[in-house]
Amino acid sequence: MKIKIDSLENIHAAAKEFLANMGDGKVFAFYGKMGTGKTTFIKAICEELGVDDVITSPTFAIVNEYTAGNGDPIYHFDFYRIKKIDEVYDMGYEDYFYGGNLCFLEWPELIEDLLPEDVTRVHIHTEEDGSRTVEF
Hints:
Belongs to the TsaE family. By secondary structure, the protein is of the alpha/beta class.
């Protein structure tokens, strides 16, 4: 599936479309170059899920936990600063990835071997006109 994001003004419409088409998956790995809008899109998705918390990139914390409007936890990961795979083992990644709650992962290529088989890979591309394309 492809979703086009023409501007920040329609990012919430794109997030709604993503949510309507994400199926039963729980772990979503977001791929894209630096600055393509991975964090911004995840933030819009979380807002559409009713998250009232401040949503920021977990670059230094590795994982942020948010609470959806229905009370369920949502986990937002950023593996950009992972230096050794042991850091991921030490944080107990399996509890998150296989716990049945939504997990949104940035920079998953750094932990590719640990991703669940049923992970949904989401690719965000910047187009020449500055718009973004989300494919999954």
